[in-house]
Design goal:
Elements: H1 3-13, E1 16-21, H2 46-49, H3 52-57, H4 59-75, H5 80-90, E2 94-99, H6 105-109, E3 114-116, E4 119-126, E5 132-134, E6 153-157, H7 166-178, E7 181-185, H8 196-203, E8 207-211, E9 224-226, H9 230-238
Parallel strand pairs: 1-2, 1-7, 2-3, 7-8, 8-9
Antiparallel strand pairs: 4-5, 4-6
Helix pairs in contact: 5-9, 7-8
Bound molecules: 2'-O-acetyl adenosine-5-diphosphoribose.
The site of 2'-O-acetyl adenosine-5-diphosphoribose (OAD) has 30 residues, from loops.
Length: 239
Amino acid sequence: MTAAERVRGWVKTAQSIAVLTGAGISAESGIPTFRDAGGLWKNFRAEDLATPQAFARDPKLVWEWYDWRRSLIAKAEPNRGHHALADLEKRTANFTLITQNVDGLHDRAGATHLLKVHGDIWTLRCTLCGKERHDARPSFPDLPPHCFCGGIERPGVVWFGERLPPEIWSQSEQAASAADVFLVVGTSALVYPAAGLVHLAKASGAKVVEVNPAETPVSGMVDFSWRAPAAQALPLLVS
Ligand code: OAD
């Protein structure tokens, strides 16, 4: 039996599966990841822009970055990896998809048990009155966008140094600790607390499977590292 067949056996017989995805699952939809080649925007790293301090200093600059990403995401379609996970959800008794992605491609592929630990790029939140609204325009005529109350709006995402949404995080921890199989897909596993879910799942007894063409800091502790792009590996894993 090959390693891949063994992993397919784990997935097939699991009563409870949790999945953690990162930017890599959307790479084959044409959305650049943050830390691979092509991820920099105007030579800024995500850590330079995705912070409350960067937004306070220069909201227009931060919004220009999000506008760039929104325009790329608006043109993108979910790929075979997103669809494979949506299929897996349908045939697994307990299934939770935890994503660090803010692009909405899992929703569009049909995922329903979805926990967005880093928020949603299509949500805007007023920095003055706190009102949230959905806005699917790929880019805005004027940046930064403003709320009806006059306040500057920010993207409804979690920035470095900010707390993850507590209820979503607690459900993510529960899913990771209850999983028989935990899939880690397309994440560099560098950003915490999200990456901590891999350790939690492993310590709670799950079989942990990584899908990533590159090695990551968690590769050494997983039960199987599948070195392949998500759109190629995931359909095979769930077929
Ligand atoms: P990264 O850009 O850090 O990592 C992307 C990972 O995807 C890398 O490990 C790649 O090897 C892998 N990868 C690339 N192409 C792939 C493919 N076709 N299939 C599978 N894997 C592939 O992205 P994240 O781990 O998602 O947070 O980054 C975590 C967080 O850092 C993001 O949510 C974002 C970012 O700053 C915030 O904005 C708060």
